[in-house]
Design brief:
The protein has helices at about 35-45, 50-70, 75-80, 85-95, 105-115, 125-160, 185-195, 210-220, 235-240, 265-275, 295-300, 305-310, 360-365; strands at about 10, 15-20, 30-35, 165-170, 195-205, 225-230, 245-250, 250-255, 260, 280, 290, 310-315, 320-325, 340, 350, 355. It contains 13 helices and 16 strands. Helix 1 (about 35-45) packs antiparallel against helix 2, helix 2 (about 50-70) runs antiparallel to helix 4 and helix 5 runs antiparallel to helix 6 (about 125-160).
């Protein structure tokens, strides 16, 4: 750790470098982010995505902004290190904070960083130190999620008297999404380490195909048995007994346990509920939003470009990456990025503090101190 994580790291020049997730799974490239605008654009265009990694990049984005101010504004040392420097940093922090609306980890990370820096006399070095501390803590939380989640896997196998488990997941919630083990995939990685025979049903996750491209890529890198399925296949697999549990991540969880995650998660939860398949959501503490009581009413849902629905990217027979139109040219489309799964459909929340019921009082008892 210490500024070096699998999806992002501080390079030898002290700048934030990230894996460009828009290039996966066809090319593995990284991108260096040297300015606030580059950090904001990377979050907006999904160069980086996944609630946790967005928060991680936001934290280092504050450090990037502090470095940028240090170079750009010709102010005296006292101004740079005092209230004027902090005020200028606040303006850039707001740009980062507003880059995407649904993932609360983004706002949480920016607010934490600015709170830490309020009385700083050395914005650049303190921002770097605080960002590393925050991200090291997040990485340790993901390791705990891995352990608690894998305990559930072992219990399900024991209860069913099976030696192999089939897990369905939706979107990508591995180390590309949350440093440094992920959330939904963290228990799966731990299961592999414990020698458990695990197979993952990977939802393609239209329209951006994060499952088919990113989750499948991660699992391939780790040698974990998996099968990519169309998004509408999960219900059928549950009906015929081919899914032992569902694990997803989340972008925001309300105080009463409602979960905002990638569009389509709600339908998986309904199918799991109807077929008595355990449905778990794995999250770090930073994904809770204690200011929202009713997630269905109050969690903002991002509306993304309709072109994500109308077009698809892939590699042609000549090995060239292309984007093609798959709908009638004049047909309109709408693209909601997320949906909200009500707490009543969730078996449990897998957290760094153990498994918690998706219930206001239980969440408050475990996590209200984290606010």
């Amino acid at each position: 750790m210490l500024g070096k994580y699998r999806a992002l790291w501080l390079n030898k020049d002290g700048f934030l470098e990230v894996i460009d997730q828009t290039k996966l799974p066809f090319e593995q490239q990284s991108k260096v982010l040297k300015t606030t605008d580059e950090v904001v654009e990377a979050i907006k265009d999904m160069t980086v995505r996944g609630a946790g990694v967005i928060g991680s990049v936001a934290a280092f984005g504050i450090y990037t902004a502090a470095m940028e101010l240090n170079e750009s504004y010709k102010v005296s040392s006292s101004e740079r290190e005092g209230s004027l420097g902090y005020e200028k940093l606040q303006a850039k922090a707001l740009l980062i904070r507003e880059s995407r609306p649904t993932a609360v980890n983004l706002m949480w990370a920016v607010d934490k960083m600015m709170e830490f820096l309020k009385n700083s006399n050395d914005l650049v070095n303190d921002a770097k130190r605080y960002a590393i501390e925050l991200n090291d803590k997040e990485a340790l939380e993901s390791q705990k999620i891995a352990e608690y989640g894998c305990d559930i896997i072992e219990n399900i196998l024991k209860k069913k008297n099976k030696t192999k488990i089939n897990i369905l997941t939706h979107c990508n919630a591995g180390w590309l999404a949350v440093i440094d083990e992920g959330t939904a995939l963290a228990p799966i990685y731990e299961a592999q380490r414990r020698g458990i025979d695990v197979h993952v049903w990977v939802d393609e996750t239209r329209p951006r195909n994060q499952g088919a491209s990113l989750t499948a890529w991660e699992l391939t890198q780790s040698g974990i048995n998996h099968t990519i399925i169309a998004d509408n296949t999960g219900g059928h697999l549950m009906q015929i007994g081919e899914v032992d549990m569902v694990i997803t991540g989340a972008d925001r969880v309300s105080a009463n346990g409602d979960v905002a995650n990638k569009i389509g998660t709600y339908l998986k939860a309904l199918a799991a509920y109807d077929n008595n398949v355990p449905f778990y959501v794995a999250i770090p503490a930073s994904t809770f939003d204690f200011d929202i009581i009713d997630g269905l009413k109050d969690i903002p849902i991002e509306l993304r470009s309709a072109d994500e629905v109308r077009c698809i990217k892939g590699v042609d027979a000549d090995g060239v990456i292309r984007e093609v139109l798959i709908t009638p040219k004049d047909s309109p489309a709408i693209n909601y990025g997320f949906d909200v799964t009500p707490a009543r459909l969730i078996t449990g929340l897998i957290t760094n503090k153990g498994v918690c019921e998706a219930d206001f009082d239980k969440i408050k008892e475990k996590f209200i101190v984290e606010k």
